[in-house]
Amino acid sequence: MAKDISRTTIQPTQTSLSEESGIKAKAKGKFRTKEAQIADSQVYHHKSAKSTEGQRLSNRQVTPHNLDIIVQLAERSEWSGLSSAIQQHCDSLVKLDQTLSLLEKHSIDLPEDAQHTIGHHFVKLYVLEKLPELTKELL
Amino acid sequence: MNLGKIDSLSLIIQQADEHDSLLGVMSRVAVDTFIQKHSLTKINRNQLVDKITQNIHDQIAALIYEQEEHIKKTKSTLEQEVNCSRNQRRIEQKYLQERIKSPESSS
Question: Which residues on A lie below 8 Å from B38 (Cβ)?
């Protein structure tokens, strides 16, 4: 499964994150410029992107494009942006697991702060998913 | 909701801070598996275990409280028993909160 979503080919029809944030990045399929890729990843450094409310999480999904950005952020050692991107796009334990496996595949060594943020995100997702299981048939 | 179901919910959070309690085992296994799988060696394991335990304890305690309110309305004789259970849970919640702040958890 992790292999499936790790494909980083960008679909031409896919909505760019830069469009969401108003940053004008020209996305042209796989021929995107490096500037456009960097502009995309900049959205995760914006203050508003650090929010992790449930609503925001539910509106986001991990797409190959998101994963591509996450790997780029890690390769450029932009840890704050990386943590923010993981929090926004990994809205389930499975997605978090897949994203971290992808980073491992790229031999990314996460620093302490990023690991700390990921750990707390794991707690949040774990409680969200396990609580309904625990109370199932008791409510 | 009947008393049996309230008891079952209470059992889930019983002795949550204990090493071999349901919540204790569940939280430790989850965190250890996650850390080992992704080699996240710099993560504060104890703190995450305590946070999961506290979070689930708080939420189940809130569910029990809600159900007890219904029970109290229908069976006023149970009011004292309900109050005792609530006091016990408050003590446990406070203890779990303090655990997270303690040096052992943050180390």
Answer: 97, 100-101, 104
Q: pLDDT-derived band of residue A9, with 50, 70 and 90 as boundaries?
A: very low
So what's the ipTM on this one?
Answer: 0.86
- CB-nearest partner of B60 from A101, A118, A135: A135
pLDDT over 80 (residue A45) = no
Which H helix or E strand runs over B40? none
The domains of chain A are located at 2-135
| pLDDT for res A137 | 79
Question: What's residue B97's pLDDT?
Answer: 87
Using a CB–CB cutoff of 8 Å, tell me whether B16 touches chain A: no
Residues in chain A with CB shorter than 8 Å from the CB of B44 are 116, 119
* B33: closest chain A residue by CA: A97
CA distances to A42, A94, B29 from A109, rounded to whole Å, are: 21, 20, 24
Rounded CA separation B74/B59 (Å): 24
